[in-house]
Sodium/hydrogen exchanger 10
Amino acid sequence: MSLNATVINIPFLKNKLADTWVQYFRNKFINSARDLPEIILILSLVCTVGAFLNLHLKDFPVPLPVILFVIGCSFEILSFTSDQIQRYVDAIQWINPRLYFDLFMPVVFFNVAFDMDVYMLYKLFWQILLITIPGLLINYSSILWYLASVNKLKLKSTPWLLFSAILVCSDPMLTAASIRNLGLSRDLISLINGESLMTSVISFIMFHSILDINTSLKNNNNSLVQKVVDEIWTYYVASFLFGILSSKLIQLWMSAVFGDDVNHISLSFSVLYLIFFICELAGMSGIFTMVIMGLFLNSTSFKPGVEELLLVFWNCLSFVAFLMVFTFTGLLIPAHTYLYISFSDIYYSLNIYFTLAVIRLLVILCMSPLLSRLGDGFNWRWAFIMVWSEMRGMPNITMALLFAYSDLSLASEKERLQVLFHSVSVCMLTLMINKIILPVATNKLGLHDVTSTKYKSLHYTFQHFQEITKSAASALKFDKDLANADWSMVEKAILLQNPYAVSKKFCFSKASYQRQYRHETLSQSAVQMLVGAAESFGEKREYMNPETLKNYSESKKFLTFIRKVFLNWVYNTKKEKGILS
């Protein structure tokens, strides 16, 4: 039986499946089955070199993604000098660019969302929403206006829209890594991570929506308004609901059926990609679904002790995806493209980078009055850190590859390669410049959180003032004019509470609750309630006791919430009637 024989014919997959399953996978992954050994060898080599560089070049001034990109470019240029190198390079260049998106993006976005501080995201929800919806739209419109005004690439309207979506996107994984060890406050870190994650998701949806709408308008299938409404429904609403449903099913499934650690890891990997491809085939946004799943799943959603293995496993997969994307990008930019690069192209990329930074800074500063009202602590210094902490990487490069090697007739080959080159160059400039500026800006603006030395100093200061206050109160006890005073009440009133000590105590409490959950001393529902209470009271700088814990538990019940709503409604109604009478 030949490979071209017809095996299966499903109507809704007819555009993606060829005559046979074998032909489909051959067209999807590689041009020829003989390329498979070369691909496996290149993957192993990239992982080995990447792990070595990551181990020994942590403090190197040039970021690791830039080094990987240069290695990929070097292989592409050397392929013209040797037939052996050309054979290996061709094996990578014939891979469908859609494969990079389908393989690498789900694991990256799920891992970033799974590692997110959900409590802080809930606290900063309105600030993140303000930056990622009106702020992103203003950013996108300003970038589109700038690109169309300069008009160096001579593109049409649809390529300009796609190029703007590529530039406005950020890399949540690299952004989180850039601010992890700077000593920033927890609020600022959560705000930056949440804004970067939502910006990248919305940018992906905008990119694919523009492609879908452009295809629909060319085929004259639907009106523009109807197509936009359909895109909003499928990419946002349906994906959000399906992500919540999938997370609940996974949590129930893994906690009730499978108890082995290997089963948890293998199922989390297979079910994740299964759900992603189901969403893509159904017309929903698989990336948005992955993010919702990662946010609704946490360390207490799985069997005790498995969350550490899952985090290590997902971090390993994300690192492999990081290595592949940046190395293969250097291979996928044709070498003849560099022959046509002039000083004006480099200047144009620099101009785009600084324009993006200025636009983002102006947008955040204009929104700072609203951001400061929606949450305590936001100021102009946070705005500067948010600008220089934004990293561009894998999402931008993946969308640029999808545009450059798309089957749609969006632009000429030269224009596609120009968009790809400028997108990648802006990403490299962002990684190099921001890595240098961000630590310096953090030091100059004084945004370091409480260090261990400062914490000890504050602790001894509070202790010293407490001793002085107690000694003064003890001396006043012998005052005959204060003989009738209630000294037990006075002793309670003069106790000083160190807010940092309270926060540290709740950190220890959360670690203790999670350790008891891993040892199966606490149930899943109990540890979720205790960790949530520790987050809430730690943020308020309040101590937790059985009474406050009971009130917190009751406040989280749905019936209690409905009861409060009705009581407020009845009270307000009676109050209004009393005023009118």
